[in-house]
Here is the input.
Amino acid sequence: MTELLKVENLRTYFETERGTVKSVDGISFEVRKGEIFGLVGESGSGKSITGFSLIGLLDANGKVQPGSSIKLAGREIVGLPDQELRRIRGREIAMVFQDPMMTLNPVLKIVDQIAMAIRAHEKASDQEVRRRAVEALARVRIVEPEKKIDQYPHQFSGGMRQRVAIAIALLHKPKLVIADEPTTALDVSVQADILKEMKALVAELGVSMIWISHDLATVSQISQRIAVMRRGEIVETGTVAEVLGQPQHPYTQGLLDALPSRARPGELLASATTESSGPIVLDDLAKTAPKAADGAFVQVDDVDMVFERAVGRVGRFTQKFGIGQPSHAVHAVKGAKLTIAQGEVLGLVGESGSGKSTLGRIICGIYTPTAGNVTVGGRKVREGQRKLGTGVQMIFQDPYASLDPRRTIFQSVADGPLAHGLTTRRDARAYVNRWLKAVAFDPALADRYPHQFSGGQRQRIAIARALAMQPELIVCDEPVASLDVSIQAQVINLLIELRRTLNLTLLFISHDLSVVRHLCDRVVVMHHGKIVEEANVAQLFEAPQQPYTKMLLDAVPKLAV
Amino acid sequence: MTSFVFKRLSQAVIVLIVMSILVFTGVYVIGNPVDVLISPDATQAIREQVIAEYGLDQPLWKQYLDFVGSMSTGDFGRSFVFNMPVGELISQRLPATLELAVIAVLLASLIGVPLGIYAGYRPNSLASRIIMAGSILGFSVPTFWIGLMLIMLFAVQFGVLPAGGRGQTASLFGIPFSFLTLDGWKHLLLPVLNLSLFKMSMMCRLAAAGTREVMTTDAIKFARAAGIPERTILRKHVLKLISIPLVTVFGLELGSTLAFALVTETIFNWPGLGKLIIDSIASLDRPVMVAYLMMVSVLFVVINLSVDLAYAALDPRLRLKGR
Amino acid sequence: MGDADMSDVIIKDNFESAPPASAWRDFWRVFFRNKVATIALGVVLVIVLVAIFAPFITPQDPYDLRSLVLRDARRPPGFVGANGMHYLLGTDSQGRDLLSAIIYGLRISLEMGLIAGAVAFTIGAIVGCFAAYAGGRFETFIMRLVDVQLSFPAILLAFVVAALLGQGKGQLILALVFAQYAYFVRTAHGAASAERQKDYVQAALSIPMSGWFVITRHILPNSLPPLIVVATVQVAAAISLEATLSFLGVGLPPTEPSLGMLISNGFQYLLSGRYWISIYPGVALIILIMAINLVGDQVRDQLNPRLRK
Here is the structure.
């Protein structure tokens, strides 16, 4: 195999308000013909910036520094004038982005968007364009391409849009395709299909590909060689077997150790610590833990949730006369039934749109179900429009959004306990500090604002806020989904320890089966608003009963070493 | 789509009913037209006769119903001051205002939007900075003052253009318009310029803000990654994406320009609706005020309605919802 | 005039709740990097100071009829009056020193603009936040009302209200508030509904915190940045509106040396070449409005996260 792309000492710096940011700082690697090259790293490692540097599409304040070299098939790209670069883009190097919902223009038909991409590099008649558009969509396995090319992006699902983006990237059979987290925003079943097809397409067309991802498993599945990036540098590069099988660098080892799928369920993960955290201090809290184990401490009975799009009076009037469309109702949860025992961790698993988050919010009392009841410890969570008591607390997915940016850490944690008499104004400081210590957050920093902390630290604060209400049940809605794998490991560890010490009852909502397997006692699988399967963790993962569960388990990318 | 149109139409009707009540009470509760109509030394008998003649002795709700009833038949009553049917009065003045406003908005769009797109596309270039600074100046300077300056410069100082009036008009469909004659254009030039400067700045800033935002989206980045030339990106992607908010603004601006015209018309002595309403408010000429406000309401409702429809036609996400 | 429409641009922008405390210093550091905006801010501050201390710095008190010399009316700039008075910018038709009148005019403009802006701001923030929080019919009703009102240009509303209420400071402020409050309601509502959807509000509601707490401690503080930007634009708009209304004769009584009134009075002498009576007050007005708008423009750019690098 000969090399197609040779990158030497690539340095990309950004000029910002706070000085120069060295996003990519002297990396070298090469990509061979017909190869898929994986570029792995956590957020801020510079992997995406590397991709954009290669295709010459940096934001205005970013610049590839002199002395860097990018050679495509022997030709130096760095320093080429814009016109030349444009001719290379799309024809020799193409790119696929992360979020398929954003990459296509919502007001242009698919065929028009393909036509523009074709005509960017060659002349073509309308007929020719249509023919090639159909061909391109067929290539990425879109059914009825003749019909689909005349539709608009919003009529496509996320997976289909990503296929269209891939089709556009492959139009001119480029030498190199840069795929920046192309499956991250997709459901795991869709991701599995696209992974398979991409691999086949690369082989079929003989193109090379750089696969940028934070996910070791998908990268290990699709690529032949990989490079691990950290803070703008490549720490290790080699074949998948070399790098992931016998990692030489402690950082790579740390990333691998942080994967829950590689640890025994329930075990603390050895994480590649990138942020320091104090020890978890829990001694005086342990005694408050409830002991009794009740089989159905939390009970969800036949819960239904229908979201109706507001039609208003006029809308109802038009419907009556048959002029309007039938009301647009989304049946998010259908007849959900489940129980959680005290001290149990129940996993709630499903793909996007399965209704798992909605069910979680109903149990937490944020939404009022259309029908059915939720009781915790025998008391209803909701009566009419009012949420009762403080027994159920929630931890949200995005720690950047779940803390009020204008309230200090102390205020955020203290607000609830103060409002509900769990502490007094005088004791609040000590009370809050106790819970911050419980999540290994330094109480000395409690008067700062959330923006001064990292995602992992913020998630600790959010956990402390929930704990401080001394809840009977905590609903965790994808609490580690938006965290880097090493931070994710720390938060998982924290939850495991808290659970042991405080005998917490948790409802753990997640799309990530490996995390659920690691953390939960029992699992409930949801699909299209219905609960399709319920079993103990070991049972579900070893002998799934329902075809949907089987498919889901098969689709999970596994580390291929 | 049909239900969308139906919904908008019924909303428009409700808005009009609410407006008619507001306008009616607003205008009728304040001020006493009897003082305008009758000289202070008129006898009690004449007073009562006049009051009865104009229906001012009826309870307010009765007056309102009469007012709605006669309005729906196109009868807006008689002007207290001009002593002629209000409908006639307004239809006499409307073309003058209409021609002023439409030309002004067209001018504002044709100049403002391209400048704005350029400024949004290259926000850091010198030309863009000048355009943006100019647009801030444009909407900071009060219209009436610009009007005075234009008159002082072109009419007084250089004496090349007339300071007011409509000039010579020519008939189109039996309606007199100034833009059909050279002399008319001479008279139009200053008022149009005066009226459009502010709008031009607005359009320019909107187009710039829209373009700047669109340029940062992934859709544009993806198009660039496919090697699509910048000119095509601007023409196909950007223009199409920002045309949606721009159409909205165009419609609304047309409406507000009609209303804005009252300042320009006063300064340039332009015999349009704006001058009429100012005069009628000064003289508490209720039927004219009510009719004008109702007409403006209808106008705005119609404009909003067509903006909504245009919006739906431009945005496939809205258009295809019903399928 | 209806610069009010400018808030359309602003409302379409999405505001991120900028973090407080240390962000404050950063904000000004970035702000001062823009020289034009810095100068504009300086101009605004100078005008505010001049307006506050007007009685101590003006050569003449335009309210004091005894100090006016009718013989000195309509004198050109630089004229030295019979009583030894030096009229730097000339005199108006009543023999008032134009410089003094302009300074007092700026004082009135600022007073009207700021009071009207503050009242409209308060109404808008309260109504908008509550509507966004309450949702349902209350929200639909309020927002529909606001939409209808916003479809009418501010100048028309202000003109009609001012005409109906008659001349006077109170009446004028009322007319300005009526013409502008809807912009604040819409902005506050837009920002507040965005905040309402965010996880931290959901988190507070799930604790549960009371609705009052959520509105006053979470939603309102986080909705302030876009409101502040709209406020700068609207104060400038109010000042422009005030001048226009006074020019049209429905604003302040002729005894108040408002800038609009000065320009209006000078209008009739414009054609005879006595340009200064209209031009100088106009220039003062434009400098004030433009400076406020330049400051607002920079603040908006800085608060828009999508343009921030």
Remarks:
- The interface with chain A takes residues 17-23, 26, 29-30, 140, 198-210, 213, 217-218, 221-222, 309 of chain C (CB under 8 Å).
- The two ends of chain C are 33 Å apart (CA to CA).
- The longest helix of chain C spans residues 211-248.
